[in-house]
């Protein structure tokens, strides 16, 4: 049975880049590694609908914090069996975003404080309770602050016409609130142990778990 590690962080923080590094370095050490990226765009209609909402479609869907969280949760729930099978067949299963994304973004959107947040409890009940998603063995918060992550998102949008900034990515106050929420989730050890690190330290924090 392998370990499930979730990589979390702001839009544009560099999650995909660090997941790629961890995947390659763990594979080079002989580990059997696989990666899931949430939302599963192109594979899941609920993921695509959520993205379309973040880019201005589907009326007032994006205004609903709980509505958006349900869309992301349904996408993950549909991947539950594949996640469990992957954990049985691999040494390391990496998730580029997982349940904590909904906890952090929803708490920040509602201005709730981690530790006394109804929406964070609701996300945990829905996804780990009702949908029975596997809990991560470890979560990594990529320690890239909002101003750096937003500069990377806007740089990417300027050079890649397929990656325009969405409603959340353009919102400076939201990004700052999400980073605070993530930092508090990590500090409180929400649902697993956490590392809060960047660059080589972030890669090492995950590889160390492989033993
Ligand atoms: N350590 C780094 N230093 C400088 N630029 C970086 C670094 N890591 C990633 N980038 C660049 O920042 C941009 C965002 O990186 P990436 O796609 O990995 O982020 P992400 O967190 O997965 O983004 P999103 O959640 O929005 O999909 C890319 O253009 C990438 O090349
Ligand atoms: C998986 C997931 C995502 N979100 C938020 C985070 C981002 O701002 C957007 C889209 O995700 P992407 O990684 O930029 O493609 O949605 C969320 O609130 N809850 C989630 O579970």
UniProtKB/TrEMBL annotation:
Which UniProt keyword terms apply here? ATP-binding, Kinase, Nucleotide biosynthesis, Nucleotide-binding, Transferase
EC main class here is transferase
Origin superkingdom? Bacteria
* Gene Ontology terms: cellular component: cytosol
One Pfam entry name = Thymidylate_kin
Signal peptide (from-to): none
Q: Which NCBIfam families match?
A: PRK07933.1
Could you tell me which PANTHER family the record lists for this protein?
THYMIDYLATE KINASE, UMP-CMP KINASE 2, MITOCHONDRIAL
Its protein name is Thymidylate kinase
Organism per entry: Gordonia humi
Q: What is the lineage of its organism?
A: Bacteria, Bacillati, Actinomycetota, Actinomycetes, Mycobacteriales
